[in-house]
Structure formats: structure tokens, C-alpha cells
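ok, trying the design again with the full structure, not the truncated one.
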């Protein structure tokens, strides 16, 4: 009797876990539990910073990995998915803010890079590193590049304005 109850309880728990996971696959639920899910990066892709480069996919992918490996505050790669053509990173070894780097092959041997993250700061930080690192390869503007660059510039300007406001308020007191 106890054995049957235990079996029924386990079956109910498994069924409940499957139902509560909704559309997410069991694999994605496991990744989320382990802290390495890329679903949030895919969901935020619609708000990604984008820029196109005159590089083939393989070359672009390898150069981006090289850029990520440079500097003192290196991001940590926690997932790579060749089917999704994506690299998922944490901002640094001490900052586990996730950032997704998506690659889309375009006509003429170009590659579109999209940087997504739930954090605007992390998205802009990684986009600046990668886009500036690849700038020597003469990015091909399609309107998207200028949007991401102007967004970064306006964000920097607004931070400078805030600093000026604080200095003025402190000086007036």
C-alpha cells in the first residue's frame, strides 16, 4: 500500500512539473533551474542592438570570440548554440548578467550581429566592445548600425547630463 502511494505521489509530481512548464521544453526548464537558460536572451532579441559587417559567418563568429577573450574584464561564455547561431555570455566572471550574441548570414557574404540582454547597460557594453572591435572591417550600414550607435551615444549623453545636474545641485547647496 505504501509503495503504491509513493508511486502515485511521484507520478503526480512529474505530471505537475510537465504541466507547469507550459510551452517550455523539459530541457529548457532544466537549463533555467541550472542558471544557464538562453530563453530570456531570445525573448529580448526583438530589442537587440544590431549591426551588419562585411564578413562571412565563420570569420565574424571567430573574430567576436577573439574580441570577447581580450581585456581585463572578460565576459564568460556559458552557452554556444550552432543551430541558433548564438553565443550566450555573462558580462564578467563576477557579474552574471546574461548577454546574447546572435549571428545572421546576409546576402553578399555579410553577417548581421544582434546583441540582446535584459540589461540595457550589459547590452550596450558588449555591443560597444564587439562593434568597435569589428569596426576595422568597415561595417555595412543599413540603418540598424546607426540606430544602435546613436542609442549608445544618447545614453552616454544622458549620463553626462545627469552628472552635470548632480554637480550643479551640490554646488547650489
Amino acid at each position: 500500500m505504501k509503495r503504491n502511494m509513493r508511486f502515485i505521489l511521484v507520478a503526480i509530481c512529474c505530471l505537475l512539473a510537465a504541466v507547469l512548464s507550459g510551452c517550455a521544453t523539459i530541457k529548457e526548464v532544466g537549463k533555467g533551474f541550472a542558471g544557464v537558460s538562453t530563453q530570456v536572451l531570445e525573448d529580448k532579441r526583438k530589442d537587440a542592438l544590431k549591426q551588419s559587417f562585411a564578413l562571412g559567418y565563420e570569420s565574424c563568429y571567430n573574430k567576436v570570440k577573439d574580441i570577447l577573450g581580450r581585456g581585463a574584464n572578460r565576459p564568460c561564455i556559458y552557452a554556444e548554440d550552432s543551430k541558433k547561431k548564438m553565443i550566450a555570455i555573462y558580462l564578467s566572471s563576477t557579474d552574471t548578467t546574461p548577454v546574447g550574441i546572435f549571428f545572421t548570414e546576409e546576402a553578399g557574404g555579410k553577417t548581421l550581429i544582434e546583441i540582446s540582454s535584459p540589461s540595457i547597460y550589459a547590452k550596450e557594453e558588449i555591443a560597444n566592445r564587439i562593434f568597435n572591435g569589428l569596426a576595422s572591417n568597415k561595417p555595412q550600414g543599413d540603418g540598424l548600425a546607426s540606430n544602435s550607435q546613436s542609442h549608445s551615444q544618447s545614453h552616454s549623453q544622458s549620463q553626462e547630463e545627469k552628472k552635470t545636474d548632480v554637480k550643479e545641485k551640490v554646488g547650489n547647496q
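Keeping the full-length input from now on. The two ends are 78 Å apart (CA to CA).
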